Amino acid sequence: MSRLYSAIVLALMLAAFAPPVLAQDAAHSPEPANIAALVQAAAKEGTLEVAWGDIYGGADGVRRAQDEINKKYHLNLQFKYSPVANGAAFQNQVVGEIRAGQTASTDVLFHVRDQNLAKMVIPVDYRKYVPGLPADVMFYDKRAVIAVSTILAEEYSTKDVPPNKVPNSLAGLLAPEWKGKIATMPYQGVIGWYLGLNEALGKEGMLKFYTALSPSIGGLMTCGDSDRVVSGEFAFFGLDCGDQEVRLRQRKGEAIAAFYPKEGTAIYAFSPGIPLTAAHPNAARLFITYLLSPDGQKMLWDEMGCDNYKLAGSRMAPIIAAAKKKGVKFIDIYGLDLQHPELDDYEKTINTIVNQSK
Amino acid sequence: MARPLVVIPALVTAATILALLGFVIVLSFSKIEDGMIAGFAGFGNFATLLSDPNLPRMTSNTLVFAGIALAVSFLLGVPLAWLAERSDLPGRSVIWTVMLASLVLPGFLVGMGWLLLAHPRIGVLNTTLENVFHLSFPPLPINNVAGMGLVEGLLLTSLTFVLVAPSLRTMDPALEEAARMSGASSRSLLWNVTLPLILPALVAAAMYVAIVAVGAFDIPAVIGLGSRIYTFSTFMYVHAYPADGFPDYGAIAAGGAVMIVIALAMTFAYVYVLRRARSFAVITGKAYRPRLTELGRWTPAAWALVAVYALGALIIPFIFTLIYALLPFAEPLDASVFSHMSLLNFAQIPWGLVLTGALHTAELVLVVPLAVVALSFAISWIVVRTTMPGRFVLDGIAFMPHAVPSILFGIGATLAALFLLQKIVPIYGTVTLIGLVYTIGWISFGTRIVNSSLIQIHSDLLEAGAMSGARAGAVFRDIVLPLVRPAAFGAWIYVVLLCVRELTLAAFVSTPKNITLPMVAWFEWNNGSIHSGAAVAVIVVLALIPLLFLFLQFGPRSDAMFGSSVRER
Questions:
Q1: Is the ipTM of this complex over 0.85?
Q2: For the structural domain made of B4-567, what CATH number should be given?
């Protein structure tokens, strides 16, 4: 018994203490010339490791992507998915890993949200792999590509907010009756900075809004945590990371809806990229290629509740068009940090305001 | 004389502890740019820390939180310890069972359970009270500093219990007998003799529990973080994992450096109190049997206290977590929920990840407890059985992981792995790193136990062995090992349980590649999958149950294990 135990301990010690894979240099891994070469290169890597929250369908989306990619290309790739507690913070942790020369904890950064993060990922020309891909879905010198479009909205519980009391503006949230019943996320600045644009509230208006909102905030939650709205813990959540969460829950009959603020509603995007030190850059390229394909877009619509409105056959495009007809003022904000460096400061300012300790 | 086989591991362990803390201090004076060390910063990081708008509130929150937790744990733990050790309560051994069971229940599960019970808007306790008494406000909201302190206090009650109970058990009854003979009433005896006798032990236990409370992560994270209530650990966590930029390592290290200084001061105070405790001669070594106090009509009240504790710390949190694990979606908890319950969440949890977390946890379970016991033995042997110069310094260093909030070791190890060791020993993101941090974090616990066990072995035994011609190895194998085995096994199994439930340290060293089972539950919970997180938490508890039985069978119930930390410093 003790020998068996010793053998098990020794084996596990060896496994646990085995040196980890040293950082790959994805930055210098050659970009396969076409989809056939990409498939071959991905097959050699054999594995894809990704980590994010419920974006891209979370665990279900990754599993479906694995199955469909393997079926389509006759591969046997293993996709390993890990959830993370806070996607935005996790990406910053990965940046630390990249800068320290460590293998990144994920082969795909789920969202290259600005030019700073774009410096941490490799450029990929996805037009080599996705026929007919519009050039305007690639950003930051092809380091990021829009996989899905989202509409930033204010979620609310249809049980706790009667139809006649549903606000249609951000200002409406400041009504005393909602005090303490509004949730936002700790990284609201990542989303809300667009309100500082002149097309929305402008800098002063944005600061005024968040300063007035802060005392009404009852708690912080992350995107995807809308259970807490459905349960009645909060009446509102927003601005959210996109109304796709509401769409998914409405499909299941849950008591939740969203409104588009009249001050200006942002069309946002989630744009994956491949870290400079990704262990499996070609599997990552193939995964992102899949997301941009009709099959991938269908998977995203089913599992995530949105797709890229700029791609042919998009189900989001008619939704946006219908809302525009109703007078919603949309602002397409992805990539605006290139023209508006001040937005970085807005982001930090908003985060400081909403994270003010109780 | 200490042999290299003992000295080298002991010194390496001590050096690692000092290196991790030293690195935090060095980093606190380093300039950090874009997440990388870029020169000397002087006191810049401390200035940044002081300018953080959340610092004053965080500080007051931490003090209030720790104070309430300490008060609750003592108000429950000390009377329960007295009932278990010094009263004639029928079936009082159940108290030990309840305490040890709650000692191993994961803190995050207790937090989840209480949040679901007493949340101001969705907690069944508040909604029920509001409906029954037609209130327009939640009467018992949990998501505030006092509520967090209450829940943390419930969690720490078992720790207070195991720290205080042995002192009550081993008190010399002669003093109490003398007081009785002099006509003292039971109340007078309690206030004038018993309590003063164990006061130093109580003070020492209070300092110990306070340190744990200050660095606690589970409850502040599960209950406080979502309500913008930061304590020391969550404040550090937010800085370590910011959403809007690179981790603020400089400010984290500055906060850590301040805590190290405070912790060192507390350590000296702790040692001072324990040394004073010896002068009270609480333990005589004579054979004795303390007289038990008759409870009489207070027996029902005593059992009520036990029941309240068991309900609050064990049963209710687990039941509510289980309910959420069985519900498919969020809904008010009324009678209709039972018709909606299913095992769907268990089917839908990311089993691949759970298995990965379980495998990593299993690796830790097999390696860390063994390492803790072995290294503790090496250190304790030098401290107790040799005359090596500086052995008391070694003992002090081994105690530091208890005095310094454990998250600092997590932060120190993460930063060292990321910045210093990446080219030499790339252990960032590996189970090895977690194992290292766990081992360091729990080494002081191990040394306290082994210290007391070794002290009890009279040197005559070893000398007799040597005189009989036995070599050192044979003396160790045939005399020392059998005598320390019970305490070592108790320590081993307790560290096994810690490995399975630990979240505080794991939160600071985990990445998706070295995720542990409790971290899976935390990630799921914090990522919006409350029901899935609850399901994983239930799985963690199920994994703990067989270990708990082992723990109850072979574990402590003796001061060889827990009493040591109070008595033998």
A1: no
A2: 1.10.3720.10
